[in-house]
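Consider the following assembly input.
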Amino acid sequence: MERFSSLTGLLAPRSVAIIGASSDPTRIGGRPIAAMLRRGFQGRIMPVNPNRATVQDLPAFASIADLPEVPDVAIVAVPAEAAVAAVEELAGRGVKGAIVFSAAFAEVGAEGAALQARMAAAARVGGMRLLGPNALGAFNDRIGFYGIFSASLETGYPPPGRIGIASQSGAYGTHVFAVARERRLGTPVCVTTGNEADVTVGDVIGWMAEDPDIDVITAYLEGIRDAESFLAALEAARAAKKPVVVMKVGRSRLGQAAARSHTASIAGDDAVTDAVLAEYGAVRARTTEELLDIAQLATRRIYPARNTLGVITVSGGAGVLVSDAAEELGLAMPPMPVAAQERLTRLLPYAAPANPVDCTAQALNDISLVGQFTEAMVADGDYSSVLAFFTHTGWAASIASGLRRELGGVRTRHPDRLYVLSVLASPELVAGYEAEGFSVYGDPTRATVAIAAMGKFGAAFAHEPGLPPPDVPPITLPAETPNEAEAKRLLAEAGIAAAPERACTTAEAAVEAASAFGFPVVMKILSPDILHKSEIGGVLLDVATADDVRAGFALLIERARHHAPDARLEGVLVAKQLNGGVECILGIHRDPVFGPIAMFGLGGIFVEVMRDVAFRRCPFGEDVADEMIRSIKAAPLLLGARGRPPADIPALARMLARLSVLAYQAGPRLTSIDLNPVVALPAGEGAYALDAVIELGAH
Amino acid sequence: MERFSSLTGLLAPRSVAIIGASSDPTRIGGRPIAAMLRRGFQGRIMPVNPNRATVQDLPAFASIADLPEVPDVAIVAVPAEAAVAAVEELAGRGVKGAIVFSAAFAEVGAEGAALQARMAAAARVGGMRLLGPNALGAFNDRIGFYGIFSASLETGYPPPGRIGIASQSGAYGTHVFAVARERRLGTPVCVTTGNEADVTVGDVIGWMAEDPDIDVITAYLEGIRDAESFLAALEAARAAKKPVVVMKVGRSRLGQAAARSHTASIAGDDAVTDAVLAEYGAVRARTTEELLDIAQLATRRIYPARNTLGVITVSGGAGVLVSDAAEELGLAMPPMPVAAQERLTRLLPYAAPANPVDCTAQALNDISLVGQFTEAMVADGDYSSVLAFFTHTGWAASIASGLRRELGGVRTRHPDRLYVLSVLASPELVAGYEAEGFSVYGDPTRATVAIAAMGKFGAAFAHEPGLPPPDVPPITLPAETPNEAEAKRLLAEAGIAAAPERACTTAEAAVEAASAFGFPVVMKILSPDILHKSEIGGVLLDVATADDVRAGFALLIERARHHAPDARLEGVLVAKQLNGGVECILGIHRDPVFGPIAMFGLGGIFVEVMRDVAFRRCPFGEDVADEMIRSIKAAPLLLGARGRPPADIPALARMLARLSVLAYQAGPRLTSIDLNPVVALPAGEGAYALDAVIELGAH
């Protein structure tokens, strides 16, 4: 595959030119050279500067044309106009990659955007990959390559390690690098993408997924520009069993983006990104610390497909604290087998042997007890993850060495488990524990969050391909936005059932339809121009007699004329009223990046007020639809809470999967679909759309 | 007041006896002596040991009787039986306080509990305060007093500071101390309460509230044993404007406690503790780090009553990250005034001047810009809190001193604001920033959480006393659990209205009642023995004709006989059916610690499935009831979401406040009240209980 290998010239070059090279090691054109000299870059470094014979003691060249060889990568650190010319020239010479520091492009307005487009076009034509413009740059410490001008290098370089950083923000990407360095976590490769005229953060993630020396990928996202490369990168990472930990900002703007359809206004692109990350098993971190907590543990490369946590603690309180956190995170903490509990109680009468296993401070008086307890947890409890809370006792001279020996013994006998220590100790002691295979966190809650993430990765890595999306005959979208009856006809072709109904142009036809369906019926205005009927009183429920049908017909026509005098009126829709089910909403909206997105939630209140919804990129199979339905908080209502009969979830899942295929096949003209409500009848009785709105964009 | 001053002998003693004193400084009876000698305890230390003339070079005494003076406090470090005898003897000699390390009391079973009761009784009779038993103990570093045997002292003592630790767990309390010490946060007083035979964590919080040298109180809670002292302590802390930060474990056990009534089973005591903490403005931390993050910032003693946050950043991404966190925390981030924004843009064209104010890395080239920007945020933006994100640039030699100077200037001119820095820097540099009044956090999200907490404290400290609970005539509880009609009569006496209804013993009486109210009506089984009628089909809605009333009467009687053959049947209740309102649940359950607790939520699904409820200790006024109603997530449904008319919230609030007074006055025999549903009609039309269940305990 290696679809991302075109970035290798950029990120692992064998030779570098610096356009706008400076002798001052703190200037933007000087920092990369100083850093590469400092870190011993093995390849040739070729400063380009028309005014100097040498730059930082290296022979300099007057122009790109004067370069004695074609570099793998060129760093461009000259003003915008000159940068465009430089990129054009570099591409012409066959350079594989350019890192453009220069600013004043798309980020400052239309004129800059035009300049950026010119630059990108030149690179594309020349087959050159372009990082930036307006990028802080990238480094690859393994070869001493520093195509970056960050001040963070003033305080040090990355220690050894196997964590990559892919960031859309230069300041934030190097912040993560600096925090990691303080924590002694090695981030040998850090790439910040700036304006993303060519190389996107997805490309970078993908390149790291293929890089044999990176095990864990951390990413900072503000918004995805190119779905294709981003999804391919996430899939490449999953296939390579490399965890991707994501910091995505902009949660609070959820719902602010102006969106045309009802469903889209609920979605917001942040929720969609969430759904996409979950689909590929990438884990979203809430804070920078969490990002690195998860990355730190992930470097152990142990990802339990079915994660269970056993906690051994000298503080009952800390045990409860961890249990609280684990439950919130959905991390299982099953109890120890009863026989093992009894054995532990014989060893130490006041221990609490269930899980958390509280060995109490007593165990510290005979440290071999800690070993026996932990061994029992792994051998008998069979936990895939063990968290040992020993607080300051992990530091105490009288305890630390015994603790290391005892826990180390268990680890040697069972190396396939995750071992996490929550201790307070000197940096040296912590480094010792880490070297022996224990990941150390001072705070037990943070340890628990990291452990839970390993299970999410493991589940994603182990995940078998699910059911294929169902076969749905391709539909032909009409020329104009369809009315409700037409919309339902289209949906019926895809196997999505509505309640029995008939379009009626006279009151007598309505009475006839109602008599055929049986009373009560629902009556609705039928017009392609009135999308949200209930707002103008255009829906009548519980119409129970023929006389009421006649009166209702007149009333609906009157209301439509009054509230929407210009709307085309096509009569009244009469439908059988379905009682006794659970009302749901199924929807589609078109995300500008990820295309059609399906939504599932319960009746309007749950969606609009409680925001209790599930999203998923289209298309998908019934297994995914079933997961979506069961994932909402209110799912118990469908499963039979409060004495209700369980709803027909297979029918709902079938409808949702078919809807996803329909939306996927319909192409970009389909703006949104709202099936609101869909009534899910009791198990075996099906699910029916009571209303359907399909919105189309221009041809 | 000084109601907690009886703890002073325990926690700030002038002389100490150690019963079971040991020469070994690592033994339980040796550690306190070693620590006091090390920290220069000023008072007399009197080891008691029958076998030695000296202990750790101090003259020892053979017995309590041999003590040359009555110590303020005695530390008891002998086995359980001997400890009881020692306490009896100490109390007899007039000692003011005892700290009992000894274990094997209530924590090991009934026999130990009896022993503990004997010990507590002896102390009480002698007027002696007792900490423990099974307590790790307490320290007060300001006077060098160490009545504690924690191994955490092996690695150091607290640095100077003004944070107190009150903990029900010894291991966890000293864990907090050790983490704080690593962070250079001073916790001069740490008290762990063990089995709480006498002194509770509430007493300790109260004592710290009255201690002039403690500014901030951190507390670890597993469960409150004594509501009275706990509430008095929280009130004392609030009155003294001392923040209380709480770690309360056991969230995940919510709902597990077996509770008799419907409402109680929803509550669980964790939610009640939450409500009590919120009532007094104590802030609950989710993690140990958060506990200390909040305590750290609180030592600045700036608690904005109306907190607003201004963010200045060199990374746009970090700005968005903070905005996300602030919105989730309910911390306002209003934009800068337009004129000020224009001025800043003139200073630095590429800056984003709204809020977050992104001064970009450009500002670092002329560091005076950072000063001008920050000054504008305080002077023009008038933010009460300023968060400055400078990541690793706060460490760079070229920037740090200028940054300190510029930010320091703003702080000197406006010392009444909270200044928080998010920088990565050496411990020395961080200490320098801290000394100049900037609280430093590496992680910007953690900084934001701490800032938000200061506003919660400020709001609580500024809070005026609210409305008094309404006058409600005292009700007389009946001898037996009342049926629905009786329950509604009782509630009516308190001014709580039910829908018009009539108890009917014959079908014809039911028809007459229905005709009087007007159709449709609701019909329900009337029996004191059938509490949850709907589960047996004992409720009929939409009964629309006289014939249906007759049929319904027969059906209900038949169902009652079938499902509950032993129940006393008192007929059928006929009530007017109220349509068009919002269904709510109002409830009372009796918490074993805090007494009657009121609950508010929307109709059953929202309470049972979504857990969207508000709790409050009874009694309270209509202002508090109004807050409760508006605090639930689904509140928009009452305020007019989805085109509904707004509900009559004043009527709901009146009902809830009256219910709280009724429950308070009713005394401990009242187990629970369920008003489910209550229909809140549109504004001005009132709120009516449609069903009422009152459960009473034994006399």
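The first strand of chain A starts at residue 15 and ends at 19. Ask yourself how this observation constrains the way the partners meet.
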